[in-house]
Design goal:
mainly alpha; globular; MetI-like fold; 14 helices
């Protein structure tokens, strides 16, 4: 019995180890090659760098206009995610605490809208916001933030709705007795309880918005408004064969989201587990 259990555990850890290596190996290659010159990368991309030089990173930062692009991506991501989380939490809270026929139908329609592909909305969106209202030309960044808020609300409301059904109403009744208004109850009592779920949605929506290419490429047509994925595409077209600049630029593009995920991973797991069992 003990021997069978030992063999089973050994196989499990072996499988996990192989999976870990398969997932981490591309990142390892990216990191070691980001410190190499072109000739080193082409000669042997699997070898360690002969010297640790930051020259490639400095050159990539200047040539891809990294500071401006990073600022644009952060502004769009932070405002869009904040809009999604606050409005979705408020919407889900209203639906859970007010179980009317209209709210039930609206929630069903909202959930069903998640299956609609963005490509089917792309051309009508460009016609309405571009050709007719001229918002793409006049207010591209605010428009993009509002569009992200609209496209990200359905999934977020669905997840908040499932979690809020487990929150006891007695907590809110106690706050009402103490003299709190509905707004104070939501922001001071309910919203802090939603922290694990909110952090999970923050990471999921941040990764989606940060890495999204199609929607920003349709809305942000001016060079000084480009986000990281679009700037990386432009940079790739300009320095297609210059690997010593492309690899550091790619690493700089994905690094912020990796850092955010590592910081909040415990809250992500907690939020996913809470939403799945409650």
């Amino acid at each position: 019995m003990q021997r069978a259990k030992l063999i089973y555990n050994t196989l499990i850890y072996l499988l996990l180890g192989v999976t870990f290596v398969l997932f981490i190996f591309p990142f390892f290659l990216m990191i070691i090659n980001s410190f190499k010159g072109n000739w080193e990368i082409l000669e042997n991309p699997f070898a360690l760098p002969t010297s640790l030089s930051l020259r490639q990173f400095a050159e990539a930062i200047v040539k891809m206009n990294f500071a401006t692009t990073l600022r644009n991506s952060f502004i769009i991501s932070i405002l869009s995610v904040s809009l999604i989380i606050v409005t979705s939490a408020m919407t889900a809270y209203h639906m859970v605490r007010n179980k009317t026929t209209f709210n039930n139908v609206f929630f069903s329609v909202l959930v069903a809208s998640m299956i609609i592909p963005f490509q089917s909305l792309m051309i009508p969106m460009l016609i309405i916001y571009g050709a007719k209202l001229q918002l793409i030309e006049r207010f591209p960044m605010p428009l993009l933030i509002l569009l992200y808020g609209g496209f990200g609300t359905a999934m977020s409301v669905f997840i908040f709705h499932g979690f809020l059904k487990s929150v006891p109403f007695e907590l809110e009744e106690a706050s009402f007795i103490d003299g709190c208004t509905s707004k104070q109850t939501f922001f001071l009592i309910v919203l802090p309880i939603l922290k694990p779920t909110a952090v999970t949605l923050l990471i999921l929506n941040s990764m989606w918005i940060w890495n999204d290419y199609l929607l920003p490429s349709l809305i942000l047509t001016k060079p000084h408004l480009l986000t990281m994925p679009i700037q990386m595409k432009v940079f790739n077209g300009t320095y297609m064969d210059n690997w010593e600049l492309l690899i550091p630029a790619l690493l700089l593009t994905i690094l912020p989201m990796i850092v955010v995920y590592l910081i909040a991973q415990k809250q992500i797991i907690k939020g996913v587990m809470s939403g799945s069992i409650k």
